[in-house]
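User: I'm putting together notes for a lab meeting next week and I want to include a structural view of one of the chains we've been expressing. I don't have a solved structure, so I'd like a prediction I can at least talk through. The sequence is below, exactly as it appears in our construct file.
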Amino acid sequence: MPTGGIKPYLAARILTKRADFLRVKTHGSRASSLSLALQYLADPTEPDVAVGFTCAKRSFGTGVASNRGRRRLKAAWQQAVADAKPGYLYVVVGKLPVLDLPFPALVAELKAALARVPPAAPATAQP
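Assistant: Thanks for the context. Below is the predicted structure for the 127-residue chain, given as structure tokens.
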């Protein structure tokens, strides 16, 4: 059962369930940079792109700061979504420098992280 709906402005299905975030963290891979970590997991049942965003209040200090970081990550995703490969679940984890990094540099970091994701294996047909 899919969770979340397709958000046209993000061009992706949004991960909303904690179980999805934990599955990507536990079984997936990671591409890190100064201001973010991109966790990804190939999912042959996912025809499109699915993405979740997180900025822990514990790391950012306040809810205001973590919400601002998450909004910046979502805006950067809008610019970088064309580089995302279908068939993957992505979780974008914000780090504290995401608040101060110039926006073009943030988009470049996200695009570089997406470029490190290998192509997804095609889904096998089931009889």
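A couple of points you could mention at the meeting. The chain has a mean pLDDT of 88. The helical segments are 18-27, 57-60, 63-80, 103-115.

User: Perfect, that's what I needed.
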